[in-house]
Every structure is written in structure tokens, then in C-alpha cells.
Amino acid sequence: SQLNNDFQFIDVGRQDPQKKAARTRSKEFAEIYEPYKPQEAAGQAHRCLHCGNPYCEWKCPVHNYIPNWLKLVSEGNILEAAELSHRTNSLPEVCGRVCPQDRLCEGDCTLNDGFGAVTIGSVEKYITDTAFALGWRPDMSGVEWTDKRVAVIGAGPAGLGCADILVRNGVTPVVFDRYPEIGGLLTFGIPEFKLEKHVMERRRAVFEEMGVEFRLDTEIGKDVGIEALLEEYDAVFMGMGTYKYMQGGFPGEDLPGVHKALDYLVANVNHCLGFEKDPADYVSLEGQRVVVLGGGDTAMDCNRTAIRQSAVSVTCAYRRDEENMPGSKREVANAREEGVEFLFNRQPVAVIGDDKVEGVKLVRTRLGEPDENGRQRPEVVPGSEEILAADAVIIAFGFQPTDIEWLEPNRIMTDDRGRIQASEYGTFAFQTSNEKIFAGGDMVRGSDLVVTAVYEGRQAGEGILDYLGV
Ligand code: FAD
Ligand code: SF4
């Protein structure tokens, strides 16, 4: 039988969940992977070798007990697997869907040497989706409630990770967000073909049942002041992300037809979900020749959104080579299958056009000396200019920390790049220079990943419990 076979990884190859055909999926905003059937999940989970020192677990930013829950899945014990998986991760069904597994857990799987890594992310997603469908909920029966209340600013993965730790320890988190739904970039950023929105709606209901209170459509600094939170609550956690748009700094960036990546994606989400306040915000690229500038997750999501809007062509230009792209390799492959063309080693120098976009002027690059982060710097090849015709250009160069005017008056220090100073190794984990305020996620690390934001939120939650003496 399957359970008695220690060489499962040879007999059964790596099998990702079934993917819809590119032709079908490029017309719809829906997840592209089908769920695993129980037999498939068990068979894939059973491929795990149970290494003595599991590298996958070290590499996973939240240090999931991966081999342990893989074993439970191979035995068909889904509810226990869900309980175990929630011991380290507040959003396992989300991380299973959107983590760049190829450079995290699966990248370090021993079977990666020729046999194909265990499909860790897909099994992680399967566990929670299946457990919820079976009616499982996190076990809160042993919680001893305190009278402590903590304000959490931001319902993104960092804020939700923090709220999860607090509520499981009897502290009531009250989570404020300026948007009408929880999730942060999971809802208002990442498109439905990677993460369908009902996943976050279900998570909101689960958190509410656990005792988390949400105050949505409420912006701190506008609708409610930070001073009021500091007065009313025992501590404050900030998980507000990074939202300052990075410009290219070249001519033509203001021409009609040039779009900012996140504005474009959010307008599309709002349009699809019916959250649209002003129909004029929606940008349809139907029938247009689109050029996307950038090579990260955001650029990839713009490429694939434009394809689904029936753009006639979508070309993604990136200044380094394919090997050095920051985004997930899986999503680059998916984009290519759906019809996105890639131009590597190209840097934009201008958007061309009289009163609207007509093209992008690009120069070729080659990789030179490493920069301060060890990544090779692209150098321009002289005399290599070319013009790529376009009707629309999307700029996806990333984000910088948002300017928040109430930081300084509240003694919250930032570093020279505007990131909040808070570390795992202070007196209390992720405490800022104001002892009552903690912070984590993108606003501390700079734009990064869902799973690292979850980790920092959870660690900050532990820090707050220590600070409150709970
Ligand atoms: P956010 O998710 O940004 O959440 C911050 C929340 O704070 C928001 O809801 C915001 O409304 C709220 N907020 C801010 N200011 C206030 C205020 N004053 N009052 C009230 N609320 C406030 N990562 C991956 O791992 N995989 C991916 O595939 C991936 N794809 C991505 C695609 C796109 C388009 C983008 C932009 C990012 C992507 N990322 C991906 C990165 C990931 O989404 C972020 O790293 C992660 O969401 C950061 O979490 P956070 O909680 O720190 O911040
Ligand atoms: Fe892998 Fe991400 Fe899950 Fe960790 S959280 S096991 S890195 S998919």
C-alpha cells in the first residue's frame, strides 16, 4: 500500500495540482489550479523523506512543521494536520497559494535534486481548505480571557498574524483598516487568479468567531487619531504596509496611457468585486498593446491582468536577466503560458508620445558589479536604444515606505529608508522606540512577502504579550 512504500518519491513523481488550460484561464479572474483530490494529496505528501534535519522547515519563514503535517496528510488525518499547521502560520491557505515556494520551502527540499520537490505549498493549501470545508475551526476552548485590548492598525498579513497570537492568548485584538475588507494586499493587490477573494472572506468569519474585532473603513490618522488608540488600548501594533509608488524618473511618465501598477490592479479588483466607488477609476486595456516595466510579483500580476482584459499584446521588459528576476518562477512560467512576452536586459529611458503613449524607448543592459545587496547591477550597453510601440505602459518598480506624519510626534523612529525601526531582538520583539507601539511586516522590512509579514506580526504578538505580562 501507499503507506508502506518508503520509495514513494521514485514511484510517484512530483505532481502539481491540475492547472486549467491557458486558453481558458486567460479569459477569467479565477484561480488557475484545481484542488487536489484526497488521494492525490496523500500520495504527494507521502513522497516526503522525513529528513532528520528538514531544510524545508528552516527555509520556511514561519518554520512550519512541514514533514509532520505531510505525514498526517499521507495518513488522511486532515484535522490534526490543520491544527498543527495553524501552530506556526496564521494564514496557511494563503501562503500555500502565493508563497514563492521555489525559493523557500520547496527550493530546499532534498528531493529537489533530480526527483522533484514535494509539493509543500499545494498540500498546505489543501489541508486548510479541506479542514474548513469539514467544519473544522481553531480550538479556542482552553483560552483564558484577560481584560486586555490591543489596537491593530492594518488588516494585512502582518496585522492578522499579530491578532491571531493575541486572541489565542486571551487578549482582544481590535483591527482597524481603511479598506472595506480584510487582507491588505491579499485583497486589494494580489489578483483573483492567484488568490480568490472568498478565501479572505472565510478567514474574516473564522477570526471573528475566535474573538477578533474588525473596524473596517476606518483610517487611523483621519477617522480615528493614534492618540485615541494609545489612550484607549493597552498596546498598539502597526502593520500598515508600504504604499509609496516608486517612479522611473524618465521623460513621458505623466503621459495619458501610463498607469501605476497598484492603482491599475486595485481598480480591476474593485471593478470585479463591485467595490468600485467611481467607474472612471477602472482601466480596461482591451485591444491595446501593453508594455509592463518591472520584474517582480506586481509586474507579473499586471501582465496577467492585462491578458485577461483582452489586450492584443503584453510585453514585460526587465532590466536584469531571467535568472535574476525577483518574482516567483512559477508565476513567470504561468504568465508566459498565458501569452506574455518577456524582454530581458532592457531598461526604459523614456515613454514616447505627443499627447498619449505611443511607445517606450529601451536600452539594452548587461550585468556588472554586485551592488550592496550582492545583486549584479545592470549596466547600459552604449548605442543600444530601440523603440517598442505601445498604447499603454504600466510601471511596476515597487514601493517605498509611506510618509506618515504622526510617527515623529509619537517618538516612532524610522531608518534612513523610512522603514519603522523594530526588531526581533529588542527588549520585546518588534517593539518600536515608543514602548507601547509595536510594528511588523512591509513597513518594517520594506516590501517583501506575505509569509514574512505573517511571521513578523506573530512575533510582535508574542512581544506584546510579554510587554503586557500575559
Ligand atoms: P499590507 O498587506 O500592505 O497591509 C497593510 C494594511 O494596512 C492595508 O490593508 C492598508 O489598508 C492598511 N492601512 C495602511 N494605513 C492605514 C491607516 N492609516 N489606517 C488604517 N489602515 C491602514 N507576496 C507573496 O508572498 N506572494 C505573492 O504572490 C505576492 N504578490 C504580490 C502582488 C502585488 C501586486 C503586490 C503589491 C504585492 C505582492 N506580494 C506578494 C507582497 C505581499 O502582498 C506583501 O509583502 C504583504 O501583503 C505585506 O503585508 P503587510 O501586512 O505588511 O501589509
Ligand atoms: Fe512553504 Fe510558504 Fe508554506 Fe512556509 S508558509 S511551508 S515557505 S509555502
- Look up the CATH topology of the largest domain: FAD/NAD(P)-binding domain
Count of individual helical segments: 16
Q: Sum up the overall morphology in one term.
A: globular
CATH evolutionary superfamily of the largest domain: FAD/NAD(P)-binding domain
Low-pLDDT stretches: none
Rounded Rg: 23 Å
Average pLDDT for all residues: 95
The number of distinct β-strands equals: 16
User: For the report, how would you describe the main beta sheet?
Assistant: 5 strands, parallel
Q: Can you give the helix content as a percent range? A: 25-40%
Instruction: Using the 3D structure, state the CATH architecture of the largest domain.
Output: 3-Layer(bba) Sandwich
Strand order of the largest sheet: 3-2-1-4-16
Number of domains: 3
CATH class division of the largest domain? Alpha Beta
Bound molecules: flavin-adenine dinucleotide, iron/sulfur cluster
Strand content is: 15-25%
Question: What structural category arises from helix and sheet content?
Answer: alpha/beta
Write the layout of secondary structure elements.
Elements: H1 8-11, H2 22-25, H3 38-45, H4 55-59, H5 66-74, H6 78-88, H7 92-98, H8 120-133, E1 149-153, H9 157-168, E2 172-176, H10 198-210, E3 213-215, H11 226-232, E4 235-238, E5 244-245, E6 258-260, H12 261-273, E7 289-293, H13 297-308, E8 313-317, H14 329-337, E9 341-343, E10 346-352, E11 359-370, E12 376-380, E13 386-389, E14 392-395, E15 399-400, E16 437-439, H15 442-445, H16 450-468
Parallel strand pairs: 1-2, 1-4, 2-3, 4-16, 6-14, 7-8, 7-14, 8-9
Antiparallel strand pairs: 5-15, 10-11, 11-12, 11-13
Helix pairs in contact: 3-5, 5-6, 5-8, 6-8, 7-8, 9-16, 12-13
Bound molecules: flavin-adenine dinucleotide and iron/sulfur cluster.
Iron/sulfur cluster binds near residues 64, 95, 99 and 104.
